[in-house]
Write a structure and sequence with these properties.
By secondary structure, this protein is an alpha/beta fold.
Length: 527
């Protein structure tokens, strides 16, 4: 197991080179105890990482995953509230009394169509067409659980007052819940928040993170059916409305800001060719850099949909399926967390780990890069430069509710492609386990910083109020009528779950998921 190094302990003790708010820290002995506690729960981390990988549940269908995690938290003294914000698979787990209240979260959903045998360098689906963890969300909540248990144990032993609230990122790949969490008031009495996300590096950041916010919306066109050959003139094709909208949007792209990202899928193209489609639908993601530009892009989409309906003699309605705010992370919290990340250091990768990473890269034509051995610099607005737009993460909504940071932890292989099967290959291997353990230590240490040094939380709140809120104002496009799209993926999982269940990991019988599947590490060969 990783131990807090002598250099790491020295770094915790001597912080003269950092800004005053970053000097607000818990005592090194408390942090060393937290790190040791995480090491003591490394087996639990491995079992959780492997189990959640095996459940492979997409957005709004994380029932087995949520039941599994909350059972572990209840066993460790946390009070569970289920179905929060009107979302069946969402929950909170709370512990403690008095003192600051710190929220800890990570995502739990997976992606459609990315089923994959872990430990196999070649693309090999476990269940063809089934979802899989091609983003690595199976590793984040195990990290958070281990960190929360460690922080709780240290707080109890040292009579430290404070409260913890753990929450899951449900349907993050749909960007469909965290704005509803905020709207429901889940963070109204929270002092600060730590979020984690899988990566191949170990770090954190502050300021405008350069990601786009987003609105997810489905446009449904309504026409009139008719015999497509016998009387096409009697019909009005809803699919024509969809196609005209898509064509018009693609022409409009040339005249949109470079920072925008927009993409769509046709979710209903009609029934069969000899019937003029009376119903058709298209699902859009509109992404932009600021709250106003997101709203403006969304309005452009609405106008084009209405024009397409008029052009085709149809009508159109729309339903918001999700929203994500631009990300803005807290500087004092990031500085404090970065010191802890440096103190923990990267995992000690074995020769097998490095060999497996290379095998994944070679088998899939990816750039050859070893697993990283060094911690990079703290990411700042200056080091990132000007953003030209990109992806989204709905942690942004929580970042605009309370001071928040994201800690990236090293549980995946460099060069793999996000939202791709290659990103699933390592996510139930020793690489994923070691990265989650390292991340748990950094989170637990940062929680203790917050609990024991009021100066840090005061500085975080000042930055939140006097810096972050001066750059923009939280203004999601959600209306009172918009509700979480909890029906999404339901039909798919009714069909897929019976095929997937036989692959669920049983930690009472097997030391690891690779053992259960009979996969040798690092070769990927069947035993």
């Amino acid at each position: 197991m990783m131990k807090l190094s002598i250099a790491g302990a020295a770094l915790l003790a001597g912080t003269a080179l950092y800004a005053p708010q970053a000097q607000a820290q818990a005592k090194p002995a408390l942090k060393a105890a937290a790190a040791a506690d995480v090491d003591a729960h490394a087996k639990l981390v491995q079992e959780m990482v492997d189990s959640i990988f095996s459940f492979a549940e997409p957005g709004f269908q994380e029932f087995r995953t949520s039941d599994y995690i909350t059972a572990i938290l209840e066993k460790n003294g946390f009070k569970i509230t289920r179905g929060v914000a009107g979302i069946p698979t969402a929950w909170t787990a709370e512990w403690g009394e008095g003192g600051p209240k710190i929220a800890l979260g990570s995502d739990i959903d997976c992606l459609l169509g990315l089923s994959q045998y872990p430990g196999s360098p070649t693309i090999t689906p476990m269940v063809v067409g089934a979802p899989g963890h091609g983003e690595g969300h199976n590793s984040g909540m195990p990290l958070i659980v281990a960190a929360a248990i460690a922080a709780k144990d240290v707080m109890i032993k040292n009579h430290i007052k404070g409260r913890l609230m753990i929450w899951p990122g449900v349907a993050e790949e749909l960007l469909a819940t965290k704005a509803y969490y905020v709207r429901a008031g889940l963070f109204k009495d929270v002092d600060a928040s730590i979020f984690t996300h899988v990566s191949n590096d170990f770090g954190t950041a502050y300021g405008d993170l350069g990601q786009n916010g987003m609105v997810s919306v489905e446009y449904s066109f309504h026409g009139k059916t008719s015999h497509a050959a016998g009387a096409p003139w009697a019909g009005r094709s809803a699919l024509d409305g969809v196609e005209v909208m898509d064509m018009a949007w693609n022409m409009r792209r040339e005249h949109l800001p470079l920072t925008q990202r927009s993409h769509y899928v046709i979710t209903n193209g009609g029934g069969q060719p000899n019937i003029v489609p009376g119903e058709a639908a298209v699902w859009y993601y509109f992404r932009e850099r600021t709250f106003k530009s997101i709203a403006d892009l969304y309005q452009t989409g609405n106008e084009i949909s209405e024009a397409a309906a008029k052009a085709t003699g149809t009508t159109v309605t729309r339903k918001v399926l999700g929203y994500a705010a631009p990300n803005f992370a807290n500087k004092p919290l990031a500085e404090a967390a970065y010191l802890n990340i440096k103190a923990v250091g990267m995992p000690k990768w074995s020769a097998d780990d490095q060999a497996f990473a290379r095998a994944v890269q070679e088998a899939n034509g990816l750039k050859i890069q070893p697993l990283k051995s060094d911690i990079g610099a703290l990411s700042t607005p200056e080091s990132r430069g000007v953003s030209q737009g990109g992806g989204s993460d709905d942690i942004g909504d929580i970042m605009w509710a309370v001071p928040t940071i994201t800690i990236r932890y090293p549980s995946n292989v460099p060069s793999t492609i996000g939202h791709n099967v290659t990103a699933a290959i390592a996510m139930a291997t020793p690489i994923a386990h070691k990265g989650a353990v390292a991340g748990a230590k950094a989170v637990a240490m940062t929680v203790l910083d917050m609990m024991t040094t009021p100066k840090l939380l005061a500085a975080a709140k000042t930055y939140f109020e006097d810096v972050q809120k001066k750059t923009d104002s939280y203004a999601p496009v959600l209306t009172a009528e918009d509700q979480p799209a909890i029906w999404l993926n339901e039909k798919l999982m009714r069909e897929m779950r019976p095929q997937m269940e036989k692959y669920y990991y049983d930690p009472t019988k097997y030391a690891s998921y690779l053992d259960q599947l009979g996969i040798a590490y690092p070769s990927g060969a069947k035993k």
